[in-house]
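Notes, Module 5: Reading structure tokens.

Key idea: the token line is not a picture. It is a compressed description, and you learn to read it the same way you learned to read a sequence, by spotting repeated patterns. We will look at two proteins. The first is printed below with its tokens.
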Amino acid sequence: MTSLATAAALLAAAVLLVPLFKKLGLGSVMGYLVAGVLIGPSAFGVIHEPETVLQTAEFGVTLLMFIIGLELQTDRLWALRRSVFGLGSLHMLACTVVLGTLAWSLNILGVAAIIVGVALTMTSTAFALPLLGERGEIDSQYGRETFSVLLFQDLSVIPIIALVGLAGATAGGGVKLGWPALVAVVAVVLLGRPVLSLMFKYASKFGSHEIFTAAALLTTVGLAWLMTSVGLSTTLGAFLAGVLLADSQFRHQLEASIEPFESLLLGLFFMAVGMSVNLDLLKRAPLAMLALAAGILLLKAVTFYVVRRFITGASDKLARPQALALAVGGEFAFVLFNAGTSANLISPQENEVLTVVVVLTMVLAPLAWIFNDKVLTPWLTGDEEPAPFDRIDDPGTPVIIAGFGRVGQIIGRVLNMRRVAFTAVDASTDHVDVIRRFGNKIYYGDATHLDLLRAAKTDQAKLFVVCIDDVNTSIATVKLVQKHFPSVKVLARARNRTHLLQLREIGVESPIRETFAGSVELSKLVLESLGETGEQIEKTLNMFVQHDIEMLERQQAVFQDEAKLIALSKTARAELDTILREDAEADGRSDQLAPELQNQIEAART
């Protein structure tokens, strides 16, 4: 098969299957793996020698280590030190002991059992983080802590690979390391930063973007080659290159230049792993292989859950999803299996079995999440009473703020400056805890509950300010206050245009769109930067704001009729174009308009 045909087959399989698997919620990694299995020798046999593809694809892992190195800014690592080195090392130690014991019980003995235990402990960053992102939990506490554990694993890969090579050398199966390796590492650490800075300054000053990208690839490939020439791994060279440039002025541009290559080649790496999967093993003993994969998934999850719950004292709400997120196998498991095989510590047959098992954990992981969401969580929390709302024993205040997020906190700070007392309530326990740690007084409570409004002495307030994120909760709160406390004036923040129309529909006067004023102010800065005069800017923005206000009034009249609302929006766009065109013609600025408006002017003239 020609190289062009191979490339076409790889790209076609990826383009067809990866979007499908992402749509099904199984993740892109699973799509790449299945694509590799299908075009590999065990299935359709489109590609018969996956080893040749794997040699190229492993460069994706090398680039991944370069990007990980770039992320290791000193101040960032210091800020995350407790969760990275504390939780990370705890997870690594506990899971390695349990999974290493499992490997030993399956007759993988000695150093090989430790390598297998460490490799199976690894979690796929490329699998776990996108999954958390799709669930909207990447910024939750367990999401941030999961990221920290993954970062520790990524950092630990370098010394682990080095130790595997050393163990192989000691056993007579690997490359013996000596003074050249030590000298190379010391030279890179001492001379790397000034030399690389000089090269990138030259590339950015005299070269194009393509030259800068080439310099970034040269750095990665060059240091990877240097490390392999002295018996060390390519990943160590790439990682050192990233660390040396982590605090440089070129960090962001380097990351942007390398990331497309890293993503594509890492996808190719997963496809090559999929091609290497021996389906005959799965055909001969499907239940045994699935049971082993499920057992590893369960052991990892239970081990870390026990550690988090009973050693660190975390709640079930935090420990359970974190244990699930870290249970899946990882890309570095494949790297460590290959390193162990190269060092003659793991047999090729054991490598094949372990590779299939890790791939199967990636198949089973989404199912584990579904089981957790649909069965475990409802069962564990079904009879659980929600946290009781705070008692509000303070005297009534002139202002009550419901929802103390970004907008509510700014209002509260301004009121504090004027010494105006207020009562703040928020329905998120996590949010309330964070705000209290910064010394703010806030009560936990749901503003859609009449009892809470009475406890907050809403009847004594002059203003009730609704700053709740959720649109439906915001509307329900406004209606409740209007019904039971009609003498209290309601002011409300609207998340978007539709929310604003809904608030106006139920009688809120002049609700404030949270992004409108900031967007108009940013537009002013954009026009100023383009050289527009102050008079032109003021005239344009006043015209836009006035037209938008008029448009809102017209939309309010047909708010309940979607077809009329869509038609009105299209008409309003055409009207604004006409106004801008006529204004530009009057000022002699028609040559500065967008092409479509210039075409309209020419058509009008003819």
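Here is the second protein, with the sequence above and the tokens below, as before.
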Amino acid sequence: MESHYKKIVKDTDRRVIASMQRQIMDGGNACYGGFWDGTGIVQAKYAIYQVAPMIAAYCCTDSAFYRSGEIFERIIAGLTYIRGVQHENGLFDYITCNFFSAPDTAFCLKKLLPVYEYLRGMGEEEISPAEKVSWIGKITTEEISPAEKVSWMGKITTGEMEILRRLEEIIKDGADGMLAGGFHTPNHRWAIASILMACSKYFGSRKMEEAANTYLKEGIDCNEDGEFSEKSAGNYNRINNDAMILLSQVTGDTTYEQHVLRNLRMMLTYIEPDGSIFTANSTRFDKDLLVYPTDYYMEYLRMGQKYNIPEFLAMCNFIFDLAGEKNLAAPDCLIWFMLCPQYRNLEFGESYDFGNFHAFYRDSGIVRGRNGRFTYTVMSGKSNFFYLHSGTIKLEVKVCGSFCEHRAFKADNIEQLPGGGYHLNQVMRGWYYLPFEDAPETSDWWKMNQVARPKKYGPNMQIDVWVQEVKGGVDIRVKTSGVEGAPWRIELAFFGVNFLTSRQIDMPLTGSEVLVVKEGEVEVANGYETLLIETCLEKHHFIEGKEDSEKKTQGAFTLYLTDYTAFDREIHIRNKLGL
């Protein structure tokens, strides 16, 4: 991966230059040594994420900043700021959200541990036996010649020793502070546990190990599909993977890495034709964000090398090819190549070929398919239950209307059909309150025990959806039953299109338009690709719905097909070239 390494060094130097411009070097400023983020906030976590690559560059012989006096001054200033905002109990604040925060302290220490490890002269579990350096800094099992011996401690400078000393103070106190615990989200548990377990080895702390195990005894929340609880393909899945790898490294228990292997295999089916990650299934902030898989690079490299998985190594090449194509920065991973120099000599010539695939992740309630130039997604529990991505055009499909408290179809389940298609189903159960049998204790509606109020049930409305992949596209059939005369709509929201054509109209598009076409087919295009949609239908134009209805997808051109229940309609979505 020598070519990868060269770009990583180059982009690390660029990161350092960018960080220098954001660093506060006015000695009279209370935030001296800190860094302004893009919103003008100065805080510990952001400073740590700027200082860590500075340290890597300072220690890297191939960096333009190798042992630079100016960078050393800035590193010391940054560490001084970080130490200054660390609470007496060792914890950091994440000032836009959490205070005295164990999980955010874990994320801070996670970024510092690799540079700390490098300066302590320790290697990794994945280094070959002839190169391997144990956690206590001694050569394991196999003696090697002094010329080959990896022994950074013998080469460390006074400046690097000062950086090491300051890092150790921050990390040791931070880990001590994390003993009190406390978290908000599922991934926080593994961030805290992995850092405490690692620090227990660094500092010989039984308390840290015991504290880590209090989290780990809950069991890892990664299902057989390889999906974690938050379904955050764009962010927290990789955070969990990093924690699992670290736990495996420091405990020697490789079962933690089995979760990572499953997730990375799943992620091979989550890449869209434009190279981005499918994020619409996430329950976290990355939902619907445009995210590229660059931060998965080290996970694919480490697991690909350790377990000799060719497709993982090919994915590393894909990520760097994508970075070149999209003008993306290389991942911030220089320190890992410094810790594990054998990665530079690992060469794998092929880039990952996604090919056609069909993956039904039953436990996660999601189907991912790829057919030629497009991918498609089917999901349960989501109003936007279907997605299609052709590379430059993205389509989302909803079925919306009003029935009692329901405002959109959200499938209760997905089943795979013998013919290869998928069936989604939801039963919306109607109900009405009835008067209490006995007079309530209060006439204040909001203080009444509404849970105990009797109900009258019915009618029920059933929605069935069938999705079938066909040559050059997908067919979607929508059937409603159980209720007559309700105005419902099928919403097709398009991103990346700028022109619509039908028998009746030619229409430029900017992404905010709404259109109801009475009949026939339409074409939506962008100069590169064209999608055909048939059969359009208009029985009403009640497309806004009630006051609390599902909102139109923001930033998309929206095409509506409207009808009254009960109806049974089929939509054909095709790439015009049939590819």
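Summary for the second protein:
- The first strand starts at residue 92 and ends at 94.
- Residues 122-153 have pLDDT under 50 and may be disordered.
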